[in-house]
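can u do me a favor
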């Protein structure tokens, strides 16, 4: 990667982190949720078939740590924990309506800055950025394969 492009991408990533993640963290603080709680709610909203082991693997933590987090979220009325009908030893995790609402609101807070940015671009600029980002996504897959 050429130094000017690398610098440009680093500047862009810093802006995204500052604005997008900053909004997400402010939302967490305002709503009094931890970042692991919000990350879990978002994961559960996007992955229907989820259990303790799956979350532990996804987040790189022990099942005991996820179980503690889930217990707190069950008590808060954000998650329902039921037995898997196929295997009673496993618990299925499902968002409550309140949990789904919090997940959705946190994503809106995180994406708000990006939506505003897209709206200040004209159609030609949007198409240029879209093409460039699609190229980066396509090439990044090659890094995952090596």
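np, heres the sequence
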């Amino acid at each position: 990667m050429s130094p000017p492009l690398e610098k440009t991408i680093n500047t862009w990533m810093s802006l995204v982190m500052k604005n997008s993640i900053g909004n997400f963290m402010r939302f967490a603080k305002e709503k009094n949720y931890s970042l692991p709680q919000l990350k879990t709610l978002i994961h559960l909203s996007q992955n229907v078939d989820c259990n303790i082991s799956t979350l532990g693997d996804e987040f790189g933590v022990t099942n005991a740590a996820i179980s503690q987090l889930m217990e707190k979220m069950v008590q808060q009325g954000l998650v329902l924990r039921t037995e898997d009908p196929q295997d009673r030893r496993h618990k299925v995790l499902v968002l409550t309506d309140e949990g789904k609402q919090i997940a959705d609101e946190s994503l809106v807070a995180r994406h708000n800055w990006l939506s505003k940015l897209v709206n200040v671009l004209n159609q030609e600029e949007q198409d240029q950025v879209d093409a460039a980002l699609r190229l980066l996504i396509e090439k990044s897959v090659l890094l995952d394969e090596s």
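The chain has one domain: 3-145. hope that helps!!
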